[in-house]
Structures are given as C-alpha cells and as structure tokens.
Automatic annotation (TrEMBL):
Keywords, sorted A to Z: Lipid biosynthesis, Lipid metabolism, NADP, Oxidoreductase
Function of the protein: Catalyzes the reduction of fatty acyl-CoA to fatty alcohols.
Broad class of enzyme this protein falls into: oxidoreductase
The protein's name: Fatty acyl-CoA reductase
One function term, GO molecular function aspect: alcohol-forming long-chain fatty acyl-CoA reductase activity
Organism name: Podila verticillata NRRL 6337
Top-level division of the source organism's lineage: Eukaryota
Catalytic activity: a long-chain fatty acyl-CoA + 2 NADPH + 2 H(+) = a long-chain primary fatty alcohol + 2 NADP(+) + CoA
CDD domains: FAR-N_SDR_e
Family indicated by similarity: Belongs to the fatty acyl-CoA reductase family.
Any one biological process term the GO annotation gives: lipid metabolic process
Pfam families referenced in this protein's UniProt entry, alphabetically: NAD_binding_4
Amino acid sequence: MEFYENNQVIFLTGGTGFVGKTLVEKILRSLPKVQKIYLLVRAIDKTQLQNRVNEEIFGSRLFETLKAQFATVQDFHNQIASKVVPVQGDITLDNLGLSVEDKAMVQADTTVMINCAAAVNYFHPLREAVNMNCYGPLRAFKIAKGMSCLAAMVHISTSFVNTQFGPVVKEQMYPYPLGDPDRLFGKIEAMSDKELIEYERNVVLKVFPNTYLASKSLAEHLIMSWSRLMDLPVAIVRPSIISPSLSEPVPGWVEGMGGCNAVSVLSALGIVQEWIGFEKLVVDLVPVDLVCKTILMAASQAKRNLPAVPIFHIGTGSHNPVTYDHYLCSIEQYWRQARLSTGSSKISENVQVALYSAADFERRFHQRFSKELELLRGGGHEGLRKKLTQAYCTPKMYSVHGTHQWFWDISNSIALDDAAPEALHSGLKFGFSWDEYLHIYNMGLHEFVLKEQVDKKLVVKYFRKSVQRHFCPDGENIEEHIRHSLGLSSRL
C-alpha cells in the first residue's frame, strides 16, 4: 500500500493493551517499510520502561510466530524489535508525561499517530472516565499539533457511542444527547466532586448505560472540534465487541477478559450458568486482527480540510450476523468437549449456559445460590463473596448486549477493504464461518487466558492461508512453519 511505502514513523498510545500490542505485531510483520514505532509506556524509569516492552510486548506469545522467522534472537532484535522505540509517558499527564527531549523527538519524527489508550471500565466515576477518555485524546492532540510531518491521526472509539440513535447506526456524528459538548466539557471540569456524582447519577446514567460510553461519545465530539481548530488530519475508528483473532498472527490469539471474553471463561469455570438476553438477538463480535487491519487502512483516509472527520465502523452484525444462542451454544459445546479431551481440572464438570430475562435471572440466581447467600450474611467468606459477585454482576454488565439490538453501517470500512492490499484486507464484506470461528474463539481463550494445552490441529486449515500470505509466499516450507508456530510435532 502506497501510504505505508513512505518510511512512516508511527506514534502509538495504548501499545501495551490487547489491541495496541496486536497492532504493533501486525505493523512489524506486514508493513516492512514502516521505519519506526514510538510506544508511549508508563514507567518509573528507563530500566522499567525497557523491561515492560521486553516482557509485555516482545515477551508475549503474540510474537512467537514472527520470532520463528529468525535464526537467532539477535537477528529478531536487529531486524524487527529495534524498530520499536519506547518513550516514558502517561496519557493522563500534561504533554503525555513526555520529557522535553522525548517530546521534541516524537514531534520531529512522527508521521502517523494512533491513539489506542482508553479506560475500558464501565464503573469508573465520571471524572476518572473523562480524564482518561476525553483529556487523554486532548493531550494527544496537543502533542500532534507540534508534529511537523504528521500525515494522519487515528482515534480508536467504540461502535456503542451512538446506541440512542439505533437500531441502525451510521458512520457519522450524531448530536451529543447531553447538550453542547464543548460547554459540557468545561462544566464537568468546574464541578465539585459532590456535584459531579449527582450529575452522573441523575443525568448521565439516565442517557448512557455507563460512564465509559458517555466519556467516549463526548470525546468523539470534542475531537471533531479539535481537528478543525488545530488543523489536524484525523480519522475515527469504531470497533464493536473486539474478540480473539480469526487467523493472525495465530488463530484465537487473545489477552485478558475484555469484550465478551468473560462470558466464555466464566461459563467454562462454572461460575456463571445463567446470562441475561434474548436468543435471536445478534451479538456483534469482531476479531482483533480484522480491527487492526481496518485501523491501519483508516490512517490513509485521514486528511486535513475535510467537511467531516471520516468514521469507520468495524462490526459483523450487518453483513455476517451471529445470534446470541448460537454464540452461547458454541461455548457450552467447546468447553464440555475440552474437559473430556484434556481432563482439565479448571473446567467445570457441569458447563451449562442458558439465557433468561432480567427478572428470571434474579429469581434463578437467588434459587441457585440460596445457601451461599445465607452464609454471607454472617460475614467473612471473601472467596465466596467474590465468586457470587462475579456470578451476579457479570451477566448484569453484559445484559446490554443481550437485550438490545443494533446494526452498525460498515460502508466506509468496506470501501477501505475494497482498496486494501492483501496484507490489510479484513474480509468484513464477505464474512467468515461462525461455526469455525467460534471454535477458534473458545480455543483461544482456553489457551491464552486459562493457559492450558489445546489441540491445535483443529485450526491448522485456518492458519495455513495466513502463513502462506505473510511468511511463505513462494509456497515452500508451509508445513514446517505451521508446526513450529503452533507447537505441533507430527505431520499435518
């Protein structure tokens, strides 16, 4: 792709998170002409800074496939890892916490800025959510304003910022439901803690389901204003529920319990058996590798002096939907079979997944845990209290996805895909098999979150195409590469 043929230098915030580090790996693997990646990383000193990058990024299993292409660790460092330059900083601090020297360096070099940093916490107080999700981008914009070579700035938002305007949500800006965004931003800053708590309870949470979405929506509107005032080339990307990878760098790559990952993992552990939702509603999962490809393509469309900031939804519900009952059935089937085939002691002997209305969920929860709830009334039992809190609060938190239906228009993202080179082609337009992907999804959580051995031969056919595209274009040594990357000893 011509945009990435020009020795781009990328500045990335949120690079140690799930999406951020997956982006780093994708850039290093598929965009060899990218000259350098500056990573903003929180650290108390330079030693901790480098240690975090070595352990959390290059020490991640995410990089095993890429490392396998090099004869020695030194070769990997010289040709790949040396492109990543960590800079000490913090998205919550003025000037991003950058030293004078680092600020001058990144402003002189950077051509593409990607803001992946966010506080994805539904329960943060409003001030904390705004500090991270609104002030964070503002601080990034102020740094970007001084970047003399900046060609693009991509802000990662979420599809759920405009759910009030559904069920079909376009790739556009909608009116902010709490009033003028710029005035509200100043109003929040001026409020006392007590006033803000009351405003959050009496106003914000009557419009938005949580402070995370309220702050992310506000941030988008502020970004529209700032991009005009600062004359910056900006694009906004709105993924839906980000899930384990479809194929790159390996099928099922995932980290942490974000997105809907907790639904599968807590069901597997037997902590949750009842979820809140309706069987035939669509759950809009999108694999992280598709998200990263679209983010990188979106940068090519960020230009100055456009009538509006270009917006790109990334989702599957409008073109390739999967229903909630299909999703939950895959969870039950995978983990039951996994327990039989692996003998895992972590997986519950009685994996059950069922959907109920909110009222029925309350009734069944109190029936199922009546004895345990009685024990808690006497105090103590912190382990039990934690388990019951998970069993009750997690389905409540995810109920918004199971009881409401939205479809994200992805026309702009499909247009990107039509123009994308093979390495950045997401395939959103044509979709993929949900039966196949949901097996990969659960297998990835089994391997990378529960950290147990899985039967990787089941996903070889989905990995083969990716291997040939990115590592063995001449068609040679494909089997050897797959065996090495997936840890298989026998022939395929």
